[in-house]
Amino acid sequence: xxxxxxxxxxxILSIIMLTMGSLVAAAALECFLIPNxxxxxxxxxxxxxxxxxxxxxxxxxVLLLNIPxxxxxYKNLGKSxxxxxxYSMMCFSFFLSFFGNFIAFTEEILLATVFGGALLGLGVGIxxxxxxxxxxxxxxxxxxxxxxxxxxxQIVLIFNLIIYGTAGFIFGFDRAMYSLLxxxxxxxxxxFVSEGLEQAKAALIIxxxxxxxxxxxxxxxxxxxxTIRGKGLISGEKEVLYCVLTRIEVYEIKHIxxxxxxxxxxTIIDVSDIIGNHxxxxxxxxx
Length: 287
Known about the structure:
The protein is an alpha+beta fold and 287 residues long. The chain has helices at 2-33, 42-54, 58-77, 79-99, 109-129, 137-147, 152-171, 173-193, 210-221, 250-260; strands at residues 200-207, 226-232, 236-246, 265-270. 63% of the residues lie in helices and 11% in strands. α1 runs parallel beside α4.
């Protein structure tokens, strides 16, 4: 019974925080960035460009353009990611529509860049921390990363540079440069809010169910694990699983471990550099 209560409480907290994160991100865009023609990156950035040129509501475009990326995320990260992402994006779209009627909080371009970028990073960081997503760019970046030598961070950066370059031709290169500055601020704040999330993380899992956990991680995330034999001073023989992940997979691996082995001990550590293809998934995966 206590396990059910804890799970229900955790789910309610996740919904509240996903809602709050979406609200903050939408407020940052509509009250600081968009009125000053400063763009976000990713699908949201593309949506802003199309909205400004065509007059189509931004809230509608964000939902519409993210549909294929939601499907890609579902194929790679599973049902729980799908539900949280759909909820986050619906909240994000609703709040974009709501704040679209507000006047800009400031017309000072530098203030809008700094505060808008910081608030956007805060909102997106909260959403990512609780397992959701308001922009599908990273989902497709994971798929491309698995088939190339590029990291997820490099792919997202290239994608955003193309968007900002396009914005420069349309709105002026000063706006493109402010948008890039906003992206850098947002990225750093996301790192801070999401407990220092980098482009890659590593999970160390101490468990008595190493084989079944490895298979489940491989099945749901397509990530292989390395098994190390360990011995606790009190607990005795254990298995230590090592697995490299992208940042939006951290929530998923915690969920998998929680479901399969309540007694497991998990630590998530930063990975500053990766040599080889350990983080990739391909037809020659090895444990």
